[in-house]
Amino acid sequence: MEGNDVKEMQSSFSLIYARKAELAERFYVHLFELLPEVEPLFGGDFAKQKEMFSAMLTYCLKGVANNQSMTHARDSLSLTHGRYNLGRQETALAGKAVMAALEDVLGNDLTREQVSVWEQAIAGVMDLLHAEPEPKPDAERQP
């Protein structure tokens, strides 16, 4: 992501961060509309899941300009979601659910440029779900 894109995204981040709980709520509404078959994977307890979604989204999007935190996010996302064997179609739909939630929550508060940059950032985060985690150095591996 280029410097101007990062600045554009950061200019809207406070709006999104202030409404992250509502964003998480709307994300799951859209996700289950687009992928109803995944709803049973969540076991019905959404409070913790919404909190984790908000935290990870915040972490990933703050890290768009910081490759080191994106490496950590990639490892965390791929390990956490790897067991679900999500395909590119599912993650693309999840990305659409995030964008639909942003539009629901912020509507006209986002400029066209901001929407475009968020689409790029979210697509990048969704791609992280398919990445292989980096192997840990021998010193960090469990025996």
Structure commentary:
Residues 1-134 form the Globin domain. It comes from Pseudophaeobacter arcticus. InterPro entries: Globin (IPR000971), Globin-like_sf (IPR009050), Globin/Proto (IPR012292). This is Globin domain-containing protein. The termini are far apart. The protein has helices spanning 3-18, 20-34, 46-62, 67-81, 88-106, 112-128. It has one domain (3-132): Globins (Globin-like), CATH 1.10.490.10. It is globular, with a radius of gyration of 15 Å. Helix content is 69%, strand content 0%. With 143 residues, the protein is mainly α. The protein contains six helices and no strands.
Brief summary of the model shown:
With 143 residues, the protein is mainly alpha-helical. It contains 6 helices and no strands. The protein has one domain: Orthogonal Bundle (Globin-like), CATH 1.10.490.10.
